[in-house]
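[audit] Reproducing an earlier prediction to check determinism. Same input, same settings, fresh worker. If the tokens differ from the archived copy the diff job will pick it up downstream; this log only records the rerun itself.
[audit] input (73 residues):
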Amino acid sequence: MGKELKITKEMVIEDIIQKYPKTTFVFLDYGLHCIGCPLAQDETIEEAVKVHQINLQKLLEDLNKATNNKQKL
């Protein structure tokens, strides 16, 4: 039985957007206009929320909802 994939605070924003394109809209809704930003190449979600003063847990919940968490490892 596989473990569900989940977006975590340690993940790099650009990697998330590439793997889960639907998350782009979540980032935009939170004011994280990371698409195309050079910092997104190496910036984790945790680093971004600190700079933008965003609720980390809520963002993670919304990002994971956008992925539908149906893919398995």
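[audit] rerun output stored. Observation attached for the diff report: The first helix runs from residue 13 to 19.
[audit] end
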